[in-house]
Amino acid sequence: MVMDAAARFRALFDEAYPALRGYALHRGLNGPDADDLVAATLEIAWRRLADVPADEPLPWLYGVARNLLRNKRRQERRWDALRARLPVPRPQADAAGDVAELSPGALRRALDELSADDQELLKLIAWDGLTPAQAATVLGCTDVAARTRLHRARNRLARRLGLDPRVQRSPGSGHIPVGGDRRGDAREVPDG
């Protein structure tokens, strides 16, 4: 008997869901993260249903889940690298006398306060690991324009984090490089 796509997917879902959830949990994901991995895997299976082996779908699905999990972990490493490159804020007393700290939540809020263009540029550099020249290609601008925009975006991010963007820290000290690329040719470009 030949099943239509919806019936085939429903059968695949019923068979694969518990196994995929177990796969995710066994790899250290918590409940919501495990559910997200399963959902993303099944979404790909739905879109590529013709590619899913009818006789043994689980190995194919595990391969998809493995790739998604590897991408998630790679993204987390990029996020950690971004946090490591940010300057460590000097303790400042707020109105209540408490000390301000740079937390992942504070970084996320500061990023969210930036324009979409600034966020995209910073993510291309920090998360996706592109050089300013490569980011320029993605953004459709010149290398010089990308470097200038990057410098300004980093300064705006530093200010939102309560840091002085004019303070240049030594390499390896967890700093926001001012202009330049990974070769270390930092240049000051005034905000305009």
CATH architecture of the largest domain: Orthogonal Bundle
N-to-C span: 69 Å
CATH superfamily caption of the largest domain? Winged helix-like DNA-binding domain superfamily/Winged helix DNA-binding domain
Low-confidence stretches: 92-100, 169-192
Describe the main β-sheet briefly.
Answer: none
CATH class of the largest domain: Mainly Alpha
Q: Please state the CA-atom Rg, rounded to the nearest Å.
A: 22 Å
How much helix, percentage-wise, in residues? Answer: 55-70%
Number of helices: 7
By helix and strand content, what is the structural category?
Answer: mainly alpha
Descriptive overview:
- It is a single chain.
- With 192 residues, the protein is mostly helical.
- The protein folds into two domains: 5-84, Orthogonal Bundle (Rna Polymerase Sigma Factor, Chain: A); 89-192, Winged helix-like DNA-binding domain superfamily/Winged helix DNA-binding domain (Arc Repressor Mutant, subunit A).
- It has helices spanning 5-26, 31-47, 57-85, 104-113, 116-126, 132-139, 143-160.
- Helix 2 crosses helix 3.
- The protein is elongated.
